[in-house]
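The following record pairs a protein chain with its ligand, calcium ion.
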Amino acid sequence: MRLTTLGIGALMPWAVWAVGLDYLSGADNMLKYAALPVTSVDSAQPQAMITLSKDHTLFFKAYNDFTDLNGDGVIETTYNHSFIYYGYFDSFKCYSYSSDRFVPANRTEDKYCNNQWSGNFLNWASMTRIDVVRKILFGGARSIDDSTAAGGGDQNLTVLQRTYLPNDAHSFAKYYNGPDIAKLTPFTDISTNKVDKRENGITLCNTTVDILTFSKEMSPCRIFALGLSEE
Ligand SMILES: [Ca+2]
């Protein structure tokens, strides 16, 4: 103990002297305490590398109904209205259907609509994985993209088109039987609680067909919602 005390006492004057020299050399600045890696240059552009699989599974449905989307430990086996589904549709807009496409008609605060399609529901029902990738990278595949002044026809019109879906296992159907169907679709007559379960709910078929020659008989999907007119 005695030697330690003597040692500290002997060093103290040198410590005070060193601090005094630093003070006399001028004000402190960050150059004394920080340095950049020698390979770092100011002109470097930020870059990102995306590692993405490149196979046919990109053309599967984006929301497969066996994934825990919101991380609460419970699998989303069907449409979950509290979840915001990403895709070509705006989750907070309502859509009407005309001219062979969905057209935004109204905004909605709670993602529900009246006699129109909910954009959030349409994303869950129709998006494929490649659609989501295209939306992220460049806003989506445009079948029409005309920026000229409005004047009729397709002028000043942008239309996003869902990817091509072959009429095989890549085509898919989404079934929903929640009590809020009438607020997610324009249909108000869909049964949800009939004894015969086959009469309840709505099935949305996703495939690529020639709209000019399409008929229900050609579709690889069957409409199981018997409560919904097939007209
Ligand atoms: Ca969940």
